[in-house]
# Entry
Amino acid sequence: DVCSSDLTTRREHLHAYSPSTLGATPVVVGIQDLSRKVRAAYGELYAPLVGDDNAMPGVQGLTLSAALRYEDYSDVGTTTNPKLGVEWRPFAGLTVSGTWGTSFKAPLLAQTVPLRSVLVQALGLQSGVANVIVVSGNNPGLKPEQADTWTAGVLFEPAAIPGLRLELNYFDINYKD
# Structure
């Protein structure tokens, strides 16, 4: 059995400003100060239940894994995300595996700042100066991204053909927000 765990705290801070270049001298028209504190805890268990010493017909190897991540964001709330896995070797040369889990990704602070840029005049290749308005920015209403995930795989490495490795994997990620 292998266990691991981790506790972390991090602070993020973003200072952003929006300059206006409508006149000869740029002027700051908007300032944003954003910050967040994130506390996280992570634990993982890797348990090889069947191996060479206790193998039996149909189960030459069996390993289970489980992980859990907890995060507390000062600005978007808390989340707990598990991941479970299994690896089964029915006979030498064939391994079947699968995982299931959830995930969470908070938007970057830079993705939530309502920066806007406006360019009123631009040089045209043939006509000289043209009036143009360009608006760009981020999404202050952006929410955390969540997902349910699962994978399945088969690995075939026959001893009769050294070096041959055939692998087939499938994954499914269902995003929310």
